[in-house]
Structures are given as structure tokens and as C-alpha cells.
Amino acid sequence: MERGTESLTTLHLFRLSAILSQAAELKSVLDELSDYLRNILIFDNFIIYILDSKQNLNAYYSRALGRGRGMSDELDWGEKIAAQIIGQNRMILKTPTPGRNTNRLDNPYFLGIPLAYQGRCHGAFLLIRFGSPAFNTDECELAAFVSQQLGFLINRQMLDEEFMQLSGEKQQIKLREDFFTNLTHELRTPLGCIKGYTTTLLRSDTSWDAGTQLEFLQIIETETDYLQQLIDNLLDSSRMSSGLLKMSFHPTHLEVVIKESVEHLLLRFPGYDIKLDIPDHLEAIEGDSRRLRQVFDNILNNATKYAPESQIWVRIKQNQHQTTISIRDFGPGINEKYLPYVFDRFFRSPDLLPNIHGSGLGLFICQQIIQAHHGVITAASKIGEGTTFTVLLPDSQREEDLVLVKHQEELA
């Protein structure tokens, strides 16, 4: 090889390496790579096949740059040769069969090379040329270099995807572990309280006046209700995951459901400051009143848990398309970066104080119930200003009737 040719080849190798090394993702550089490579060795079609996780061969990238721009036939031919290349894990050169067909578009030259890295074959790289000359030794070596770089890049991309998948699985495992840790605490707390007060009432060495007995029994009832809610959430979460949670739709008056939730809350927290802004006349909607009550109970309970002593505003608005229910507290708020995750199963904000416990299931269940009503539930919050949960419900169970208003309404 002459010095000038050797220098030119080195320049090409350097440029090809630069193109491939800058790639954050394989497809982002393949147009530039195929354009540059065609200036060095002439070809008409450029195809990359990659094996997926099930070892199926797929055309990952294909481009026609010269004669015979239609790719459908070439992909059929190429897939057969690619399977052969991968099976034998070696370069394959295919030249036109003499006398078979005088039409060069039906009888091309193929150069195919396995895309491999450290003995692992990921696919095949094919160049198709319609018409002479045949691919020579120098061209084959250059194509082999490109194939080697592509194999490395594909391997890196696959490792990145595997890492992301494992990271996601690890995060899910951590969420489950945190969930079971929290759940253990959540179960022990009411059970311990119930056991303690029951044991106290049953002591034979002392007696309690009627007022004290009533106080103890009310505490036991409250903790039992909480325990029942926790168990119901676990069962509902399981049913939702398996698609077994059933709804019973019937004409539902939302103002009645909301007022029942508020009254139930005030039984547990007498004197809690709750402001209601509910029109005198609301049209009934098609809904499952028991499940909707579960949603409002959960949101109101969260307000008392995460924003104790805060005032709560409950507002209902209705138009011809939908009913909007807003529940707002004026507590510490939720960090903006955690808002997209508040409806995720098992999610609990890392900013919560250690003495505030929960299963991370309540809002997930709320979202599933509202979605089953073809509605939308959203959360908006500002640190130090409080949190607003907004529920949008259509006036019927036809999803097209719902106007998806995603901005939060300002509360006066």
C-alpha cells in the first residue's frame, strides 16, 4: 500500500471512529455514518439487523442511497443472509450468480459482517451493491472495522438498557421493602393501642368511671376503624392489580357523599375547621357512591394527618359537562419534585416526618377509582402554602363527555 493511500485510510478510520464514539444512542449517528461511509466504498443499501431479547432478528436501521432505492425486497434478502451471518458468526460475501439474471437490481453483491463484541453476537451489518465491481479486500477490512465499532456501541446500548431495567426493578424492590416496613408499623400501632386500652379496661384491680370507659372505648373504636381502612386499602390494591375491583354505578348526589365524609371526619376530630362551598342544587351523576366516599375520606384524612390544625376548604362546582370537587388545606405542602409521584403505588414523600406513617396506597386507590369513573384527579401544592386535590367527574359514564380541565382552579 502506498504512503498516500495509507494516510488516507488512517484519516478515514479516525473520522469513522469519531462519528461512532460521539454517539449517545446508536440511531442518532447512523445517517451520518452511512453518508460518510458511502464516500469511501460505494454501496446502494445499508442495513443493520439486531437480535432482540427473544433472539428474534429485526431490521434496526435501513437506508437506500443509490440504485434500487426500494427497501422491501432487499430487507427480505438481507434477513436471510443476516441469519446466516449470525449463525456462522463470520463475514459473508455474496456475488451475483452468473447467467441467473441480467437485471443487476435482482442479482446484487452482498457484504455482510456479524455485529459482535467479546464473543457475543448482537446482529449483522450488511452493505448491498447493485452492479460491479465486487467488494475488494480493503473494502471488506474497512467494513469489518465499522462493524466492530458498531458491535461495541450496540453492546454498550444494551448494557445501558439492562442497567436502566435493573435500576427500575431495584427501585420497585426498595418501594416494596419500604411498604412492608411501613405496613408492619401501621399494623402494630393500632393493634398495640387496642390491646393496651382493652387490657386496661379488663383490669380486675381497679375500676373506671363511665366517662373514662367511654373515652377508652372511643379510642379503641377509632383505632379499629383505622385498622379496617388499612386492610381495605390492601385488599382494594390487590383487586386493582388483578382487575377485579368492581364498581356499582347509580345516580349519585355528590353533595351528600361529601357531607357524609365531612361528618365522619368531625366525629373523629370534633371542632375541626372545615369550610364548605357547595351549591344548593346539584345534578346527580352516574357513580359508585361508596367508592367516591372512599376517595373523599382519604383526601380529608390526609389533610388532617399532613396538615394538622390547618383549615380545610371543600368546594364543588358543576357545569353541563362535569363536576369539579376541590379539597384544599393550608399545611406545609408537598415538594414540587414529588408531585408527579403522589398517585404512584407505595409512594411516600421522603420529606415526611418520622412520626407520620402511611401505606402509600391511599392516593393510588383514589386515582384508580376516579379513572374508573372516567374522571381525573390531580394534585397541586406549594411549600408553606398547602395542597389542593381536584377531582373532575363527567356528568355521565361516557368518556367523551369529560372535559379534561387540567389546570387547578383558584380558590377564593
What is the succession of H and E elements?
A: HHEEHEEEHHEHEEHEEHEE
CATH superfamily of the largest domain: GAF domain
Ranges with pLDDT <50 over ≥5 residues?
A: 397-412
| CATH fold title of the largest domain | Beta-Lactamase
Question: Overall pLDDT, averaged?
Answer: 79
Principal-axis shape: elongated
Strand content: 15-25%
Major sheet description: 5 strands, antiparallel
Number of strands: 12
What order do the strands of the largest sheet run in, or round the barrel if closed?
A: 2-1-5-4-3
Structural class: alpha+beta
Report the total helices.
8
Separation of the first and last Cα atoms: 83 Å
SSE inventory with pairings:
Blueprint: H1 3-21, H2 27-40, E1 45-51, E2 57-64, H3 72-88, E3 92-94, E4 109-117, E5 120-129, H4 137-201, H5 210-241, E6 250-252, H6 254-268, E7 274-277, E8 285-287, H7 289-306, E9 312-318, E10 322-329, H8 362-372, E11 376-382, E12 386-394
Parallel strand pairs: 7-9
Antiparallel strand pairs: 1-2, 1-5, 3-4, 4-5, 6-8, 9-10, 10-12, 11-12
